[in-house]
Design a protein that fits this description.
Blueprint: H1 4-8, E1 22-26, E2 29-33, H2 58-64, H3 69-98, E3 118-119, E4 122-123, H4 124-134, H5 137-147, H6 157-172, E5 177-189, E6 197-201, E7 208-211, E8 227-231, E9 233-235, H7 241-249, E10 258-262, H8 269-278, E11 283-287, E12 345-347, H9 350-357, E13 360-361, E14 383-384, E15 391-396, E16 399-412, E17 417-427, H10 435-457, E18 464-471, H11 479-487, H12 489-495, E19 496-501, E20 511-516, H13 521-527, H14 541-549, E21 555-556, H15 563-569, E22 575-581, H16 597-603, H17 608-628, H18 638-652, H19 654-659, H20 665-686, H21 693-704, H22 706-709, H23 734-746, H24 753-775
Parallel strand pairs: 9-10, 10-11, 11-12, 17-18, 17-19, 19-22, 20-21
Antiparallel strand pairs: 1-2, 3-4, 5-16, 6-7, 6-15, 8-15, 13-14, 16-18, 20-22
Helix pairs in contact: 4-10, 4-17, 5-10, 5-17, 10-17, 18-20, 20-24, 23-24
Family: Belongs to the peptidase M28 family. M28B subfamily.
Protein name: Transferrin receptor 2
InterPro entries: PA_dom_sf, PA_domain, Peptidase_M28, Peptidase_M28B, TFR-like_dimer_dom_sf, TfR1/2_PA
Length: about 775
């Protein structure tokens, strides 16, 4: 295929249906009209000759007039039959008309007990089969090949050409709306005039003893501090908080040193650098260790001379316009994110890391810190075996550049609630070819857009709107997505039902991981039972996971570097990111020049199209439920468990807290109010007429806002953008509160009573506010505050 647009323009089959209701266009909108039958039954006038009063009981009339008994009985029977028949016909016609867009009842009923409504003349089961029918393997594989044909970072000519192709592809699908959303963001790129460098220098840091070539000179860490750092070298394992805590406990100082950190450990580059500079390090080098990332090219490992790039901004979006959109920088005062590092950072290859670490001397590493670099005896540093006091100097010379970003949108408008959106998105840019980083997500996004568009042409009427988005500048910390969130933050909690991130959705094909908001857990658990595993024919993803793990453990919390994270932690929108991985053969090429279509196909054994189709089906079925159901299938009671767990921890420290004048009772009360509000909402929905669109919209509005309720109102969105008290970052979060509480046992002298009192108060009232809002109306709120 020559272009993505060619791949996506598929002929749709004809579909004819016949209905008993009538439609006619009014102002461009099809209106279903049901005829009204009005019937008046003539009432006999009172007959004075019979001596019956106008208000006499009809039974008395029949008893007094036997000659009329048979006529009256026949009259009553005919009336009853006529009324029953008329009511039945009216009820049937009304049901048929109202069920044009009927949906299921979400979490209210178990899956097997849910009523089977029809939508656009089709049952949900029929729509599921239609979705599976129209999804195609070959278009997914071909789109990945097309997207990853060359490096295409944001702002490059290749990136601009790819954006134009995707825009034309959306237009070719004849969606209801297609448009772009543009921003100017400040991105950081390698300097064209001065390359980043690494030297070994003398004890004074003046004389260069040896230059260490960076074997992968185009690799870099976006948003690193600019300049040089000179000092001894200290090996700090993965650079986690616990790693630096252990070094501190052993008396090993990293102050002023250049720290060496391994890729991985469950944290991002940005978090590694944050902990390093907090410990006092002067610079940071990050390398892939063979213990974590396979490095045998013959078995699809990473070359020992390749470094892995990644941004180091502890946040998302443009770090020079934190909390507000980069539509026009002149509108806002100059500022920058507190998550920007203050030390230089550079990724290096395993070969360079081996050369440095093999020359170190100092204490031996603890158990578990030993990597697999060749010729390296694991010691911590900071000295060199030469004994002459030599040091390492690193120089980072990246440059900042204002860059035009273009997010590309296309939508299918909902027929009942068009102002409520289910959003699917994927980043488009990549520093390398980006088969996994950008190609897979873009391919699944385009395939879902093509499939749903074809379904609409063949009789599918989504109740809510479907929004498909190709994001720009994802490699720099989800800049395109976050800038859009910042631009529409005041309205998205009223509009966005859920967000599905398709980034890096395929890195293997054995194990599925779902990084998700708790509100979407029930939805993913019910859907994986309906999708066949791409590698095991005849078995669902759920059954295969049960066989391999003994228990189903695919649900994981959202993480900072996920594109879904900002939607929940910053925007208050339920979000999910799905990924197929394979533990036996990890895919180590992301953010390197080796992330190609060919290598991905080899890792997957030629099953790229099939695996991509399985992910597309999984996301598509969840989107179908959200677009179809009358009541949104979001589990609002899920946050009750988090409140209960914290209450249990508080109870364990009840005596110590009360001795300090702190009562946990208010948290218990707020958690109870939230739990009751969630249960009351569920009960009210069960007792309601779900054909009443006004009532269901009221319920759905309350459900949609639940995630937003947990964004703290008491911190600044500019200074603390991730305001979610359960998923966010900062002093206001439950994690920070729990960590502080643990000091009562581990280190009572470090417990700050005033700080804890403030943390507890703000969390309690955020939880109480969520309970109050979920209750619906002020007259339904009943608490003792």
């Amino acid at each position: 295929m020559d272009s993505i647009g060619t791949l996506l323009r598929q002929p749709s089959s004809s579909h004819t249906s016949c209905s008993v209701y009538h439609r006619h266009p009014v102002g461009g909108v099809e209106v279903t009209e049901v005829g009204r039958i009005e019937m008046e039954l003539d009432q006999p006038e009172p007959d004075e000759d019979l001596g019956v009063e106008p208000n006499s009981d009809i039974t008395a009339l029949v008893l007094k007039q036997p000659q009329y008994r048979r006529k009256i009985l026949i009259y009553l029977c005919l009336c009853s039959l006529l009324i029953f028949t008329t009511a039945f016909l009216l009820g049937y016609m009304a049901f048929r008309g109202s069920c044009l867009y009927c949906g299921e009842v979400g979490e209210i009923f178990p899956e097997e007990d849910k009523p089977s409504y029809r939508m656009g003349g089709m049952y949900l089961g029929e729509l599921r089969e239609m979705l599976k029918k129209y999804l195609r393997d070959d278009t997914i594989e071909a789109t990945v090949r097309r997207v990853s044909r060359a490096t295409h970072p944001s702002g490059s000519s290749e990136g601009t050409a790819l954006a134009a192709e995707i825009l034309e592809s959306f237009k070719g699908l004849h969606m209801d709306h297609t448009w772009t959303d543009s921003h100017y963001a400040t991105l950081q790129f390698p300097s064209r005039t001065q390359k980043n460098s690494l030297w070994i220098v003398d004890a004074e840091g003046e004389k260069v003893l040896e230059e260490i070539p960076l074997e992968d000179p185009d690799s870099y860490c976006a948003y690193s501090a600019i300049g040089t750092a000179t000092g001894g070298v200290v090996y700090v394992n993965y650079g986690r908080k616990e790693d630096f805590d252990w070094l501190r406990s052993m008396g090993v100082s990293v102050i002023g040193c250049v720290v060496m950190m391994r890729v991985g450990g469950g944290i991002s580059y940005a978090e590694k650098v944050f902990f390093a500079q907090k410990a006092g390090a002067g610079g940071a080098l990050i390398y892939p260790d063979p213990a974590d990332i396979p490095q045998d090219p013959r078995r699809l490992g990473l070359n020992s001379y390749t470094a892995i790039s990644e941004h180091v901004h502890l946040g998302s979006g443009d770090p020079f316009s934190p909390g507000f959109p980069s539509f026009n920088h002149t509108q806002f005062p100059p500022t920058q994110s507190s998550g920007l590092p203050v030390i230089p950072v550079q990724p290096i290859s395993a070969n360079v890391a081996s050369k440095l670490l093999s020359q170190l001397t100092g204490p031996v590493c603890p158990r578990g810190w030993q990597g697999r670099l060749p010729y390296v005896r694991c010691v911590l540093g900071p000295g060199f075996t030469s004994g002459d006091g030599r040091k390492v100097r690193m120089g980072v010379y990246n440059t900042m550049k204002p860059t035009l970003l273009n997010n590309i949108f296309s939508s299918l408008e909902g027929r009942i609630e068009p102002d409520q959106y289910i959003i699917m998105g994927a980043q488009r840019d990549a520093w390398g070819p980006g088969a996994v980083k950008a190609g897979v997500g873009t391919a699944i996004l385009m395939e879902l857009a093509r499939t749903f568009s074809t379904m609409v042409k063949n009789g599918f009427f989504p109740r809510r709107s479907l929004l498909f988005v190709s994001w720009d500048a994802g490699d720099f910390g989800n800049v395109g997505a976050t800038e859009w969130l910042e631009g529409y933050l005041s309205m998205l909690h009223l509009k966005a039902v859920a967000y599905f991130s398709l980034d890096q959705a395929v890195m293997g094909d054995d194990n599925l991981s779902a990084f998700t908001s708790p509100l979407l857990v029930d939805l993913i658990e019910s859907t994986v039972k309906q999708v066949e595993h791409p590698k095991h024919a005849g078995q669902s993803i759920y059954i295969q996971a049960e066989k391999e793990g003994g228990s189903w453990k695919i649900i994981k919390p959202l993480y900072l570097n996920s594109a879904a994270y900002s939607f929940t932690a910053f925007g208050g929108v339920p979000a999910m990111e799905l990924c197929f991985t394979e533990e036996s053969r990890a895919y180590p090429f992301v953010n390197t020049p080796l992330d190609t279509h060919g290598r991905l196909q080899e890792v997957l054994g030629g099953r790229l199209g099939a695996v991509g189709r399985s992910l597309s089906e999984l996301v598509g079925l969840m989107v179908l439920r959200l677009a179809h159901d009358h009541i949104l299938p979001l589990q609002v009671s899920s946050y009750s468990q988090a409140a209960r767990q914290f209450s249990v921890q508080l109870s364990k420290h009840s005596a110590e807290l009360q001795a300090r004048g702190l009562s946990p009772q208010w948290v218990f009360s707020a958690g109870g109010d939230y739990n009751r509000a969630a249960k009351t909402l569920k009960d009210d929905i069960l007792k309601s007429d779900l054909q009443d669109d006004t009532m269901t919209r009221i319920y759905n509005t309350r459900i949609m806002r639940v995630e937003y309720y947990f964004l703290s109102q008491y911190v600044s969105v500019v200074e603390t953008p991730f305001r979610h008290v359960l998923h966010g970052r900062g002093e206001h979060t439950l994690a920070a509160l729990t960590q502080h509480l643990s000091l009562l046992t581990s280190d009572p002298r470090s417990f700050d009573e005033a700080r804890f009192r403030r943390q507890l108060a703000l969390f309690t009232w955020t939880l109480q506010g969520a309970a109050n809002a979920l209750s619906g109306d002020v007259w339904n709120i009943d608490n003792v505050f």
